[in-house]
Automatic annotation (TrEMBL):
Gene3D superfamilies named in the record: Fumarylacetoacetase-like, C-terminal domain
GO biological process, one term: carboxylic acid metabolic process
Keywords, ordered alphabetically: Hydrolase, Metal-binding
A GO MF label: hydrolase activity
Identification of the protein by name: 2-keto-4-pentenoate hydratase/2-oxohepta-3-ene-1,7-dioic acid hydratase in catechol pathway
């Protein structure tokens, strides 16, 4: 099952994605994947929640939103592919390198990733996104995959200049509208356990710049869920962004950075393709929150 969140006639909806069309679920059932998994965690059955899906709507009539619009937590993993660690200035750590993103950093499939006005160092990172279904603390390793609802695609757009201003990466990893997410969440039962063995590819303007397999991750999905939950209570709808392989633009000579008018695509086998144009930030003066 593929679930996507979108706007239809001005209303936020959740629906079942099937090719080039989507079947909206009733608005009172769920309005994004986060709502859906919280209802499952509270005891609702998946069959009951999707029973009222409506007539198919062409994708041309909808606007995608991030599948989970406002996760409680977006926990990202750095240095989770050996080849990416080798192209960086770091030694391979023996514990996951974790940092956080904020919900304001998310942008949907087909929406622009915004290159900030303050820096010309916006880079791509194609990644697997893990959506938590049932939360908890101290989740055993052998039960960790039972807590995963499904998987999506992420582009961890990174403002490198700001990422490396300090030893702690967060600011460069959470600029507004730099984290592409979507277009859909594929439920875990549709994929190999832990989404293992899937090809991951990033393309910039049609050129393949990253190509790897999810088997190449240093810390697999079960390990990430287990280790993160040692410290942090995971909640339904939380997102773990599981790291990027080699090929980032910052490590190339000359550097390959994303600029206004570019198009970046991240594809993961059996999950989908996330596509984002790149657009320069438009400064219009201070805006009240």
């Amino acid at each position: 099952m593929k679930l996507c969140t979108f706007t239809l006639q001005g209303s936020r909806r959740l629906g079942l994605l099937d090719g080039e069309q989507v079947r909206p679920l009733p608005a009172d059932v769920a309005r994004d994947v986060g709502d859906f998994v919280r209802q499952l965690a509270a005891g609702a059955s998946r069959e009951e929640l999707i029973a009222g899906a409506g007539a198919p709507v062409p994708l041309a009539q909808v606007q995608f939103l991030p599948p989970v619009v406002a996760p409680d937590k977006i926990i990202c993993v750095g240095l989770n592919y050996h080849d990416h660690t080798k192209e960086s200035a770091y030694a391979q750590p023996d514990y996951p390198t974790l940092f956080l993103r904020l919900t304001t950093s998310l942008c949907a499939h087909d929406a622009p990733i915004v290159r900030p006005a303050c820096s010309d160092s916006l880079d791509y990172e194609g990644e697997l996104a893990v959506v938590i279904g049932t939360g908890g603390r101290h989740i055993p390793l052998d039960k960790a995959l039972d807590h995963v609802f499904g998987y999506s695609v992420f582009n961890d757009g990174s403002v490198r200049e700001y990422q490396f201003k300090t030893p702690q990466w967060t600011v460069g990893k959470t600029f507004d509208a730099t984290g592409g997410f979507g277009p859909a969440v594929v439920t875990a039962d549709e994929l190999p356990p832990g989404a293992r063995g899937l090809k991951l590819e990033t393309r910039l303007n049609g050129q393949t710049v990253q190509s790897a397999n999810t088997d190449d991750m240093v810390f697999d999905v079960a390990t990430l869920v287990h280790v993160i939950s040692e410290a942090i209570t995971l909640s339904p709808g939380d997102v773990i962004v599981a790291g990027t392989p080699a090929g980032i633009g910052w490590a190339r000579s000359p550097r390959l950075l994303m600029r206004d008018g570019d198009v970046c695509e991240v594809s993961i086998e059996r999950i989908g393709t996330l596509r984002n144009p790149i657009a320069d930030e438009v400064l219009a003066g201070a805006v009240a929150a």
